[in-house]
Amino acid sequence: MICYNIIRTLNLPTERKIIMTSKSIRAICALLAVLTAVSCGSAAGAPETGNTDATNEETTTAENSALTDSVPALDFEGREFRTVEQSAIMYGFAPEEQDGDVINDAIYDRARQAEDRFNLTIVPTVYEDYGTISSVVKQSVMSGDQVYDLVFGQMYQSGSDAQSGIFADWNDIPYVDFSKPWYVKSLNDAMVGGKLYMIESELSISYFQQTWMILYNKTKAEEISGFPDLYKEVEDGTWTLDELNRLTSDVYCDTNGDTKRDDEDFYGFAGTSAGCLLAAFLYGADGRLAEVDGDHVEHLIMSEKTIDVLGKLSKLFYSNSGTITKTDALSKTRRELFPKGVVLFEAMQVNDLLREDFGLRNMSDEFGVLPLPKYDEKQEEYYTVVDGGASVMVVPANHDNTEMVGAVVELMSAMSYTDVIPKYIGMAVEQKGTRDEESIKIMREILDSRVMDFAYLYDGFKGWVMSLPEIIKNESAISSTIEKKKSAMDSYYNSVIEVLRSEE
Fold it and tell me: Is residue 455 part of a domain?
């Protein structure tokens, strides 16, 4: 008998409070509107009145307008629209041809429709690394050459580059409507001095692909006596850090019997001690690192709540008997452990679901998608972040046709939201021909729960994010370690604020 079958019987709470937030409701309605074309504004069995048709028509029109761009008819007379991005992105901005891959072909169609509608030609440039992109953009702006119209720059690198004054303010670019659902609105909260140098929308496939979430092994979970319905826990708002610790604490089995904790054994949770991953859990539990307070930085990491979150993470990664924590590259555990079926829970990124080298689509066990756990049941919504290596969209400061940039970004963002991303979600959570509808709904909610703040966006590999592995290493020393680092963090973040405000 496999030993994790008889580990223990889990005790379930007798009462649950159902929490359905406004964000969740909006997300579900949007998903239904996109995937099934069913209006969520009309109710079956509603009493008939003389204005029923008119009311329904107005409601449907309002819903549809939220899912369409509002760019007028424009003609850019065959001008080239030049982009630059990193080659590591699974699906680029504008594929050269269709190849039968559903996602590739949807992105291809998106590009062609933009070209036809605005009479322009998309010309993408691809480099192997973000460092090269940063260098060529800086060089072009400083020399006065307009080489690129839209740049997909690495988040942390772009946060550093923004301090050089080489990016345009998105607030000055027409047609970009941040009230639309395809934009990541929390980026606005990261503005300093009213300037918005970096934005995200579902146009940026990298930003979508590198969104953090939790996968769990459904097959193995069903073999554990008393294991709860995790989809119901998510719906009820009881999926918390404490619950994750509880469900994994005793889930360890020396499967090969060699008395060593190695990659052939079975674990409750697997992760790596990497800053971006720890930050994902921290933000998921509504913890925050720092924010701008006037002309200075306020270190939210020193709050009682955030320190408590960090303590829970320390338990999960270092004290939990069911956890295996690696110190090597982020992708290693995701690629080598979970797909083998030897891990019950693991934090993953959306793109992991379709990467051939990860093998999740050929995994023998069934798996499900969960959001990052909450801090406690009182937390109203689930949150997640995007890995710091994801791309953000920036525009070179010397650009001479912001009208074209805004029109293309708005149109293609809307098309991504209504066509590309739903197809991506469907393929990502479909296993061996079986659609997991609960996971599809949760995936959409995860995407709608992405948050961002000043400290994360402008970490620049020097801020609190990259210090998290050291901070949580010793649970009893979390507060003292933060205090030791505070002076250096004051200096770094305040210098960022000073530079950005000097550009006002």
Answer: no
- Say what the pLDDT of residue 478 is: 98
Length of the chain as a residue count = 504
How far apart are the two ends of the chain, measured CA to CA in Å? 68
Q: Is the separation of the CB atoms in 478 and 169 below 8 Å?
A: no
- Residue 59 falls inside a structural domain: no
- 287-343 pLDDT per residue, tens: 999 999 888 899 999 999 999 999 999 999 999 999 999 876 666 778 888 999 999
Cα angle 444-126-388, degrees, rounded to a multiple of 5: 45
Q: 421-429 and 102-118 helices cross at what angle (nearest 10)?
A: 180
Please name the residues in contact with 289: beta carbons below 8 A apart, sequence gap of 6 or more: 279, 282, 299, 300, 301, 306, 453, 455, 456, 463, 464, 465
Helix (H) / strand (E) containing 191: none
| Strand ranges for 371-504 from DSSP E | 391-394, 430-431, 434-435
Residue 430 lies in a domain: yes
Paired sense of beta strands 323-326 and 150-154, if any: unpaired
Give CA 218 to chain center in angstroms: 23
- Amino acid identity of 461? F
Residues 429 and 471 in one domain: no
239 and 137: one domain? no
Q: Are residues 264 and 164 in the same domain?
A: no
Residue 278 lies in a domain: yes
Closest to 206 in 3D by CA, of 356, 19, 350, 49: 350
pLDDT digits (tens, 9 = 90+) for 35-48: 333 323 333 333 33
**Residue 411, number of CB atoms within 10 A of its CB:** 22
Work out the widest C-alpha separation in the chain, in whole angstroms: 77
pLDDT at 503: 62
DSSP three-state, residue 275: helix
Integer angstrom CA distances of residue 104 from 191, 204, 331: 33, 14, 23
How many other CB atoms sit within 10 Å of the CB of residue 322? Answer: 23
Task: Confirm if 139 and 445 have CB atoms less than 8 A apart.
Answer: no
Asked whether residue 258 falls in the same domain as residue 192, the answer is no
As a whole number, the mean pLDDT across the chain is 84
Question: Residue 326 belongs to a domain with what CATH number?
Answer: 3.40.190.10
- In angstroms, how far is CA 443 from the centroid of its own chain? 10
**109 and 198 part of one domain:** yes
Coil, strand or helix: which one is 268?
strand
Q: Which two tokens stand for residue 269?
A: 């949770």
Which range marks the domain in which residue 194 is found? 79-208+387-447
- Ranked by mean pLDDT, the top range of 59-73, 218-232, 440-454 is 218-232
Of residues 493, 485, 415, the one with CA closest to residue 457: 493
Q: What is the pTM of this model?
A: 0.82
Determine contact, residues 78/120, Cβ cutoff 8 Å.
yes
Look up residue 154 and give its amino acid: Q
